[in-house]
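A student in our group prepared the protein record below, which I am reviewing. Here is the record exactly as it was handed to me.
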Amino acid sequence: MLVFLAALLVLTVGSLGGFYTYDFLRTDVIEGVYLENLSLGKLKRDAVIQRLQEYLEPRLQEPINFEADGVVGTLTAAELGYGFDYAKMADQALRAGRTGNWFLQRAARRRILKEGLFIRPQVTVDREKFQRALEPLREKTQVEPVSAQWEVLPDRRQVKLIPAQPGQTIDYDRLALLVTELLKQAPPYSVSLPFREIKPRLDTEEAVNLGITEVVASYRTYFSPSNTSRVKNIRLAAESIDNKILLPGEVLSFNRLTGPRLPESGYEEAPVIINGELVPGVGGGVCQVSTTLYNAAVLANLTILERNKHSLPSAYVGLGRDATVYYDYLDLKIHNETVRPVLIKAIVGRDYIEVLILGKWVYDWRVQIEVEDLETIPPVWTERYDPSLEPGQRVIEKEAMPGRKVRVWKKYVGPGGVVSREILSVDTYQPINGVVRVGSMPKN
């Protein structure tokens, strides 16, 4: 009896061992493994990959309709940078029923054979190509945010807060997941574009908390609208400082806000003052913006850290009230040493630029600017002999202009008169010497 049982055990183990060895030496997919309704059973790895490619590759060429209040664009998955990881799917199919010990594998294979094992498409995407392909749709559907703004009312004293409006743009992360899930099923394909909110630079709550309720100071200068290049330069520079918020303790640099005044930034050639001469230069007119800002800032009781005068008087502002700038060399710097935030608004009209400082005036006095004339500096005339002229004839070749020296005062004026005053600057404008051609030799 014992001999019989021993023999039976040997036969059983031998047969099981043979089956075990055979199963583990197999290199094809076991029966019952599918991708969707596509059978992968009894296929070796290369054959699995080929069958998957034949089945899934057409999906990459199917049009995908992108919708946002109607169809806004159509692209294929291939154009979007999508593909399938065929090797990963083949390996997944080959591993089916081949993990764990022998008994677990046998149980898994019986279950797979009876119920089936369905693997899912493994989708890949090139994110850079994905976003590049969607750029036209982004441009078509994106809504830019609008920050909270203050509108200056016609009385030029009161302001009205206009609430902010959030923007929207395509949510690439969510959209990539949606398209990935689409490709795991059969066409046709359509997807609603998901959007994410773009927050404005200044939202309504932040604007309210700034406490800006009125125009605390303003200054206006005028220009000729006929010089279109100069007007364009003024507009560009004004846009750079418009809606700039200056918090308590912050310093404004005009050069930092406007950047280099270069043709590639849109600036054009217009007259500028260089070394006492009015000559053509790129960015001519920008100094009128800095000058207007300077005067408004002084009237708003902001502190001037840096200001430079022109070498010649300016036609658009009085002596001592100009502020020239030259990128990376001469700057206008304004420090908000008050206890409240201020906002700068720059408005360019047909023939004027106006800078308004918005905030909340908390003093019982106002600022005034007074210019004291200290000295007139006579010019020097140079005579040049011109044989083409008649004796005694004189022709002015270059007009002369006297120089001036002025002292500029900042006065604090209350209901009862001047409370105090301080010197803003003492400025000297050198004379422009003249040249006259004469019809006889000049006397020694």
Residues 224 and 351 are 6 Å apart (CA to CA).
